[in-house]
Write a structure and sequence with these properties.
There is one protein chain. The chain has two domains: about 150 residues, Calcium-transporting ATPase, cytoplasmic domain N, CATH 3.40.1110.10; about 80 residues, 3-Layer(aba) Sandwich (Rossmann fold). The strands form two sheets. Strands 2, 3, 4, 5, 6, 7 and 8 form a seven-stranded antiparallel sheet that branches. A four-stranded parallel sheet has the order 1-9-11-10, with helices on one face. The N and C termini lie close together (about 10 Å). It is about 35% helix and about 20% strand. By secondary structure, the chain is of the alpha/beta class. Helix 1 runs parallel beside helix 3 and helix 5 runs parallel beside helix 7. InterPro entries: ATPase_P-typ_cyto_dom_N, ATPase_P-typ_P_site, HAD-like_sf, HAD_sf, P_typ_ATPase. It is an enzyme of class 7 (translocase). It holds the Pfam family Hydrolase. Belongs to the cation transport ATPase (P-type) (TC 3.A.3) family. Type IIIA subfamily. This is P-type H(+)-exporting transporter.
């Protein structure tokens, strides 16, 4: 079993052209995303680095970023799948900035107020389109003062495969190893990445494993399902543990590689 990001891929992200909800300036999307990023060298992950590196293409956002005061910062949480920052603007306005898995960010806004169908659908379609092109998407939203939550848009990032991944995968296969990819990314991205590596594309949403009673399969079927799958997407850390446990109970000798360890 292998993680994807940083194990099969380089974890060197580059940003593509953002998708913004009607009426939103890309500069605002970029500013909000960078406010929801750690600017301390120690706490900076690959996503934060990619955003701060791309600031040069957004001069207005770059010019004002340092004028915002960070009041509270919650780094990426693998369960809520988002980063949250509470900041104060140069004018003294309090703003909550969020970036993370697009559907989790959308849910944050939906819990505050209903989103018009056309906005909701266009956003979800864009997430699906980016995924089929192999892009990892990050949703961005904010709440200004006492106002409502606003969904701003999506920033697509690409994470290229490591130069030796395909060769390593082939070598492992020739030794009789079966490789399953476990990733927190969306199913579409996972399938496209898997295809690039020469791995199978029978990748499923980890929801189907039924943790917390969410699945629709009896126990023995879940075991067969895990055995036959090439990997799982949208996983939480607990899913990784469960997949390994199920395979061990089926008599397999299982290794886990990547930071999912």
């Amino acid at each position: 079993c292998s993680d994807k990001t940083g194990t099969l891929t380089k974890n060197k992200l580059s940003l593509a052209e953002p998708y913004t909800v009607a009426g939103v300036d890309p500069e605002d999307l970029m500013l909000t995303a960078c406010l929801a990023a750690s600017r301390k060298k120690k706490g900076m992950d690959a996503i934060d680095k990619a955003f701060l590196k791309s600031l040069k293409f957004y001069p207005r956002a770059k010019g004002v970023l340092s004028k915002y005061k960070v009041i509270d910062f919650h780094p990426f949480d693998p369960v809520s799948k988002k980063v949250t920052a509470v900041v104060e603007s140069p004018q003294g306005e309090r703003i909550i900035c969020v970036k993370g898995a697009p559907l989790f960010v959308l849910k944050t806004v939906e819990e505050d107020h209903p989103i018009p169908d056309e906005v909701d659908q266009a956003y979800k379609n864009k997430v699906a389109e980016f995924a089929t092109r192999g892009f990892r998407s990050l949703g961005v939203a904010r709440k200004r003062g006492e106002g409502s939550w606003e969904i701003l848009g999506i920033m697509p990032c690409s994470d290229p495969p490591r130069h030796d991944t395909a060769r390593t995968v082939n070598e492992a296969k020739s030794l009789g190893l079966s490789i399953k990819m476990l990733t927190g990314d969306a199913v579409g991205i996972a399938r496209e990445t898997s295809r690039q590596f020469g791995l199978g594309t029978n990748i499923y949403n980890a929801e189907r494993l039924g943790l917390g009673g969410g699945g629709d399969m009896p126990g023995s079927e879940v075991y067969d399902f895990v055995e036959a799958a090439d990997g799982f997407a949208e996983v939480f850390p607990q899913h990784k543990y469960n997949v390994v446990e199920i395979l061990q109970q089926r008599g397999y000798l299982v290794a886990m590689t990547g930071d999912g360890v």
